[in-house]
Amino acid sequence: MTPFKKLAVFVVALSATAFAWAGDAFPDKPVNLVVPYTAGGLSDIIAHVINGPMATQLGQPVLVLNFGGAGGAIGAQKVLNMPADGYYLFQGSPNETILVQLANSAVRYKSDEFRLVQMVGVAPMVVIARKELPADNIDELIALARKSAGSKPLTFGSVGYGSLYHVLGEDLSLLSGAKMMHVPYKGGVPLIQDLAAGEIDFTFAPLQQQILGMVDSGRIKIIGTLAPAGKTESPLLKKYPSVNDGKLLKDFSFTLWNGIFVRKDTPEDVVERLRAELVKTLADPTVRKQLQDQGLVLSPPMSLAEASKAYETEVARYGAIAKSIKLEAQ
User: Fold this and answer.
1) pLDDT at 185
2) What is the number of domains present in the chain?
3) 116 plus 156 within the same structural domain
4) Whole-angstrom distance between the N-terminal and C-terminal Cα of the chain?
5) Bridge partners for 203 per DSSP
6) H-type helices in 197-267, by residue range?
7) CA nearest 119: which of 317, 313, 320, 321?
8) Of 238, 255, 272, at which residue does a domain stop?
9) Residue 139 in domain
10) Domain span including residue 191
11) What mean pLDDT is reported for the chain?
12) How many C-alpha atoms does 320 have within 13 Å on its Cβ side?
């Protein structure tokens, strides 16, 4: 081997070693987990369940940072403005990663600027209604909506234009062929309060202990779950039928999923390290119990390729629904 070739081999070997050292060194400082809402909500609760055990796995603190506003877009943009080095993670759902930029013309980022590291879990969705509404299942709700469409359309609430609840309501209206009126709110608390007071007819919501408590006390009622026909995603919903078990609505299956994202151009070795430690964190029995107590159905471990495919599928699905309901950026 010539001296030149020996030097080339040495340089290549040295570069490979340096790359490995770089990967092994991550993280060498605290990691930030951005929650795109103020403290106290489901996203914030999930973040505080996983950040401690994940810090143990990574060997560095994992700090929860709350950046609320603009339907989650402020927190999302915060992460995208940071270096793509894995030190800023984003806790995302369909609302912030997919829907908000389709509905808000001021949001400049795109869904493909994020990369899903690992799904955390899904919150089963339910249709909840004011207790006096003369409909106890989805078929009766659709029949009532059709009957009322010409005079006084049924009202459905959401946490804002372009939110998952809004998109689902418009999709239900389209599929059922009945005009319904959208009533946007600034948050879930005033939405549920007005529903319990009978100010609106129904809404969609992720399963939470608060919802079940209000159902048990007779303040609101569950019309049905959004689980696939014949399936129950959570033991807490066993006594409630799926809307897909009725005669008038099919393939209306949705969950509010929650995952950990990074910028798409984050180095592969860093993303893999984060994925591996997240999988270990989510396998912890204490973590699992705390998340399940919040009504979450935990996601199975995914490879990076599986995570990317799952995210691409969701982006395409909601993009198609947004197009069908003629969702326009405002």
Assistant:
1) 86
2) 2
3) no
4) 66
5) 128, 157
6) 209-216
7) 313
8) 255
9) yes
10) 124-255
11) 89
12) 6
pLDDT of residue 110: 96
- Cα gap 107→72, rounded to integer Å: 10
Domain contains 13: no
* 0.85 exceeded by pTM: no
In the prediction, which pLDDT does 284 show?
Answer: 97
Helices (H) and strands (E) in the chain, counts: 12, 10
CA dihedral 243, 246, 248, 253 (to 10 degrees): 30
Residue 250 to residue 261: CA distance in whole angstroms: 31
Instruction: Evaluate whether residue 6 is within a structural domain.
Output: no
Instruction: Give Cα separations from 185 to 30, 141, 198, 210 (angstroms).
Output: 36, 22, 15, 18
Cβ-contact 34, 67 below 8 angstroms: yes
Comparing CA positions, the residue from 75, 72, 66 lying closest to residue 40 is 66
Give me the pLDDT at residue 233, please: 61
Question: What pLDDT was estimated at residue 22?
Answer: 45
266 and 223 in a common domain: no
| pLDDT in the model for residue 145 | 96
Residue 137 shares a structural domain with residue 116: no
Task: Please list the ranges in the chain whose pLDDT falls under 70.
Answer: 1-24, 230-236
DSSP 294: T
Q: Are residues 105 and 128 in the same domain?
A: no
Q: Are 240 and 133 found together in one domain?
A: yes
